[in-house]
Amino acid sequence: MKPRRRALLVDLALWSALAVPVLAVEWLHLHEPDSAWQQLAGIAALGAAAALHRRLPATAFLLAAAPGLAAASSLFTLSYGCGLAAFAYLMGLRSPAVRSALLGFGAVAVAGTLKIGIRQVDPAAEWLVLMGTLLFGAVFPWLIGRYWRQSRELTAAGWARAEQLEREHLIVADRARLRERARIAQDMHDSLGHELSLIALRAGALQVTPGLAEAHRTAAAELRSAASDATDRLRTIIGLLREADDEQAPLAPPGETVAELVERAAGSGLPVRLVSAPENTPEADDRTAYRVVQEALTNAAKYAPGVPVTVEARQDGTTTTVTVTNARPANGAAAPSGSGTGLLGLRERVTALGGGFDAGPHDGGFRVSARLPAPGAARAPVADAGFVHARRTARRRVGLAFGAAAVVGTVLIGGAFTWYAYTKTHAVLSPQAYAQLRTGDPLADVEPRLPERTISDPPVERAPTPPPARADCRYYRASGELFVTVDHFRLCFADDAAHTLIDKAVIPKAGTADQVREEEREWAR
Question: How far apart are CA 147 and CA 394, in angstroms?
Fold first, then answer.
């Protein structure tokens, strides 16, 4: 499936999912009913937001917030709350700019505040609910999306940095190896080449010495030929050391394995025993493993002659482990050690392949161990202090932002809920008290039976009849239930000296207009 088509299907699925709460809330009568054109306009705004959130995330957020502001000045709606949070999260995920998000939040806050002032409702409670909804329904999801985007960017940057450091490490290792090759080549050319040349020269002089027996002449000729062959071999080695590739110099018989090396060392008189050897070892690992065993056996023969040596090589599919252990000397003394130059070179070679190398005393003897990864095996990225610090700083900043927003939001939401509960529960007129009120009663007789507060935003659009002209109408709730639609009572008093009750009416809750007359008859009994 093409990426563009896949993105279109994802956007359609998002639109469909966000349209479900709009229709479900209307069907379940969980809020004041909206007209058909209001529902269609809200769903269309969500569709436009779903189509624009990839290119214009801030615009998509404003489109998703518009139906909520139109339905309630406090922005707190069950129909469009999911859409508001979803597009705020996508704005944080898609857009790296903070300014556009802050402008969007500010625009929503200003629009909601203006609507609260125009409606002339209780401004304190409505504004607190507006700020709490904006914080928890928009700012928090935006912070989550922004943190997720920054986390992905930091992770990608960290892996890129690790790859760069690893490449630089390999370059440094290659340069060090080339310098070491050049140094070895120079030393071999200056010392061994000169000595071999002198040996060949002396052997040639000995061969032509007058009066030398034929057998001695043959031996001198063979010695001169061997010195000449050694000189040619040295020239080959020097040529390989001066190359920039990773070919192995023929310091050992071509194709010799670890097992054959151990067998040849044992045949020379070294008390060495092979415990196990891997089969089908990769070529690069085989050369390095061979060099580890060769260097360890050379050191054993040089610094601990006569001491038993154990060679063990294992392979578990991804790692080849080579261990060479010298036993404790018979006299109980610690095995002497040399300068460690050869072991240092082995350590550099093993670590350049991404493996591990250990060498040191062990149970009175000495042990050399190398762990070689298989070619192509994943290596752990090189730790970068700058990247780690940047990631910790980003997490700390996001954590502080979340903490500060949570504290402010908790205060706002707690204050808004407390004020909302107080104003709603202290404006409840029981149905029994309503039934006892009679038109014509003066306000002085009615007021002791009325609650201390009135409803500042009554559902006047559901009133069965318009209020009398030039009357002072007061509205009360018929129940103390919160966050649900309830019946309301309307009491209208005349503008005279006694403030006589001239009209009383029941405003039904959403979806129950047909039951008003039946309820009035029951309350009047």
Answer: 8
Position 271: which residue type? P
Q: What size, in residues, is the chain?
A: 525
Can you tell me the distance from the alpha carbon of 165 to that of 446, in angstroms, rounded to the nearest whole number? Answer: 85
CA distance 403 to 397: 10
Amino acid letter, residue 114: L
Vertex 177: Cα angle to 176 and 181 (nearest 5): 120
> Token pair for residue 73?
């000045």
pLDDT for 201: 67
Mean pLDDT for 381-403 is 63
Q: State the burial class of residue 11 (Cβ atoms within 10 Å of its Cβ: 0-12, 13-18, 19+).
A: middle
The domain covering 258-373 belongs, at the CATH homologous superfamily level, to Histidine kinase-like ATPase, C-terminal domain (3.30.565.10)
Task: Please tell me the predicted confidence (pLDDT) of residue 323.
Answer: 92
CA separation for the pair 49, 71 (Å, rounded): 17
Coil vs helix vs strand at 144? helix
521 SS3 class: helix
249 pLDDT above the threshold of 50: no
Nearest C-alpha neighbor of 26 from the set 511, 481, 512, 514: 511
Task: Break the chain into its structural domains and give their ranges.
Answer: 258-373, 431-524
Among all chains, which residue has been given the structure tokens 């149905």? Answer: 431
Residue type, 327: A
Looking at residue 242, its pLDDT comes to 58
The Cα 442–Cα 451 span in angstroms is 16
Q: List phi, psi (to 5°) of 361.
A: -60, 145
Backbone conformation region of residue 325, classed left if phi is above 0, alpha if psi is from -120 to 50, else beta? beta
Using CA atoms, how far apart are residues 237 and 188, in angstroms rounded to an integer?
9
Helix locations, 370-493, DSSP H:
385-425, 431-436, 443-446
| CA 110/CA 27 separation, integer angstroms | 31
Q: Which two tokens stand for residue 257?
A: 């394995």
Contact (Cβ atoms closer than 8 angstroms) between residue 58 and residue 91: yes
The pLDDT of residue 492 is: 94
